[in-house]
Amino acid sequence: MKHMFDEGLERREANHVSLTPVDFVARAAEVYGDRLAIVYGDVRRTWQETYERVKRLASAIERAGVTRGETVAVLLPNIPEMVEAHYGVPMSGAVLNTLNSRLDTSSMLFMLRHGEAKALIVDSEFGDLAHRASLELPELKIISVSDVAQAEVHRFPGAIDYEAFLASGDPQFAWTTPPDEWDAIALNYTSGTTGDPKGVVYHHRGAYLNAVSNILEWDMPKHAVYLWTLPMFHCNGWCFPWTVAARAGVNVCLRKFDAKTVYDLIREEGVTHYCGAPIVQSALANAPAEWREGIAHRVSTMVAGAAPSPTVIARMKEIGFDLTHVYGLTEVYGPASVCARQDRWDALSDDERARLNARQGVRYHLQRAVSVLNPATLETVANDGESLGEIMFRGNICMKGYLKNERATAEAFRGGWFHTGDLGVITPDGYIRIKDRSKDIIISGGENISSIEIEDTLYRHPAVEVAAVVAMPDEKWGEVPCAFVQLKEGAHVDAEELITHCRLFLASFKLPKAIRFGKLPTTSTGKIQKFELRAMVGSDRAIDLPGNG
């Protein structure tokens, strides 16, 4: 029923425009056009120069025949072209698909096919993949980026060098906001809970709101200097390519993580912010003290991927880095909850404060809700720090759904919540803490690894009768895959042979780091009791939620 606040007060072109983070680069150029936007070796570009380049990119994509709603994939390290792609691709109306450069070729080819990519912007380092893609997907437009090596465009029919591609575009390209902020802006593939990658689709509204939330959670100041230690292929760099532009900050690009290089850049470029998985934080925290010499300013850092150890948190504080712990998944644009610190924690001991900071926390500013619910009844668990349930999100910072997978989308959003598959508790002060990761996913160095994918690979070996993979604690990576294998009667094979077999099908970071042989524990119905296997390797995830698997 209409009331007086509706009559004659409908949405109009003058008072309602679709939200899109693409507009952040336009504002940065309009207001702070002469300020530095990109730093990468000898490259120094202002926001005005960057804006002109992304408009050229958008124009060139359109002229290449890519239409609104079609996919442009990119396979790039954290170099300036990767920042540009986060604006130029959606500015053209296309959907950005950032590929994980650590994956094996077969996985990336699956993603290119499944996402129906029309073009691939690829760094010359990955020329072999580009060549394979050009053979198997002859309609795919290859745009080759020359960085550490010259682009070999002659290897790919119809390929073009990135700079030549930009030169073909219009620096005055008249881009427009999307017709609907619900339109897709990005496609990100995640291991999910099965071996087949799922295509997570982001909308413009969610990317905009998460980019702004990043600013609010960090109190990120104008002109912050952000170092790209976090891969931009991962959840679009937690939406920080858009966040940095919203603050008219500086993108300090980093092709490959190296602790000494990071400290050198922090010192030389005045880096104020960076993000990273626990393994990155640990490498920096434990680096030689002399690498930090000359760094006197405050550095803010975000950590996610797995709960950082209290030891690492305390160590970061000791070296003068201000660490914020966030939590999320690909399906919620990266981080969507934060361990918001309280002033009263300052009076606590370092150990107690670090323990509190290791929790997954509370909802992001612009996320509607995060809670722990009973997965069967969808009732909130008691905030006693003991009652176990599933962590769930609700709000604008949730994906549109899984591409071409209505069933998985409906299940993920069952009951009006996004189901993370992660098990946790609510503490008496209202903070969420993970007690157990979903049983099929291993988080190693911030990367999701599907245990089912590894199991399927092990089953391909003729000697394997039963296989199960669980997370094993690891000092460097947080956790790594450990395989339990039951061989067929009369079969003989050692761990080295099985790992060599796995290497044929899996990326190196997915390989089992240990293999144990013997009869696997099962229920009376033959189901493998993975919680017992977790206990055997000393995992703190040796919990099995009744009815959840």
UniProtKB/TrEMBL annotation:
<dbReference type="InterPro" id="IPR045851">
    <property type="entry name" value="AMP-bd_C_sf"/>
</dbReference>
<dbReference type="Pfam" id="PF13193">
    <property type="entry name" value="AMP-binding_C"/>
</dbReference>
<dbReference type="Pfam" id="PF00501">
    <property type="entry name" value="AMP-binding"/>
</dbReference>
<keyword id="KW-0436">Ligase</keyword>
<keyword id="KW-0443">Lipid metabolism</keyword>
<dbReference type="InterPro" id="IPR025110">
    <property type="entry name" value="AMP-bd_C"/>
</dbReference>
<keyword id="KW-0276">Fatty acid metabolism</keyword>
<dbReference type="InterPro" id="IPR020845">
    <property type="entry name" value="AMP-binding_CS"/>
</dbReference>
<protein>
    <submittedName>
        <fullName>Acyl-CoA synthetase</fullName>
    </submittedName>
</protein>
<comment type="similarity">
    <text>Belongs to the ATP-dependent AMP-binding enzyme family.</text>
</comment>
<dbReference type="InterPro" id="IPR042099">
    <property type="entry name" value="ANL_N_sf"/>
</dbReference>
<dbReference type="InterPro" id="IPR000873">
    <property type="entry name" value="AMP-dep_synth/lig_dom"/>
</dbReference>
<feature type="domain" description="AMP-dependent synthetase/ligase">
    <location>
        <begin position="26"/>
        <end position="403"/>
    </location>
</feature>
<feature type="domain" description="AMP-binding enzyme C-terminal">
    <location>
        <begin position="453"/>
        <end position="527"/>
    </location>
</feature>
